[in-house]
Amino acid sequence: MSDHLITDLSSLEALFGPVAAPSIAKETDRLHPLYARWIENARFALLATSGPHGVDISPRGDAGALVRIVDEHTLLLPERRGNNRIDSLRNVIADPRVGLLFLIPGIGETMRVRGRAEICVAPDLLDSFAVDGKRPICVLRIAVEKVFFQCARSILRSGLWREEADTSSVPTPGAMLAALTAGGIDGPAYDSALPKRQRETLY
């Protein structure tokens, strides 16, 4: 198996061939007005970070636009209520480099943003992101360094937005917790209470 590993950059580039011109042309170091408009329509993204304990990727979502665009170089991402693991935020403290992958249901293309984040708790800023009187715990201020859109092939291959997807074989959160705790957590009870708890603690 080791005879078939790619371990150097030249071999990797030879494996894939040249980059297509549009794939180079679409990359910018700022939020082009059309990229900004695309992101303004996104309510969901994956946030990637890296720190002393490794890399992390976690979901972020909101009822409206997920991020606020300050200018062509700056995004604001509110940190809403969650499970308090704060894996991403711990990483940002250690290493400010972040990546965001924005998705819009029904759209095959995704938008990729790379930059550097800092954690802000300015009261007026938190107030400006309040929903139903509930402020985010903090806000990530992200200095944009690279932006480009990703083609739709992966979304098309996976059929991600197909409504007819069969989820009957997917284990529930309760089932997974019950297995991981050897029955210490009552799986069916957890699943039964989860929808109400999630609705009541969105913000």
Automatic annotation (TrEMBL):
InterPro entries, A to Z: Pyridox_Oxase_FMN-dep, Pyridox_Oxase_N, Split_barrel_FMN-bd
Family annotation (Pfam families): PNPOx_N
Residues in Pyridoxamine 5'-phosphate oxidase N-terminal domain copies: 35-151
Taxonomy, superkingdom: Bacteria
Annotated protein name in UniProt: Pyridoxamine 5'-phosphate oxidase family protein
Species per Swiss-Prot/TrEMBL record: Massilia suwonensis
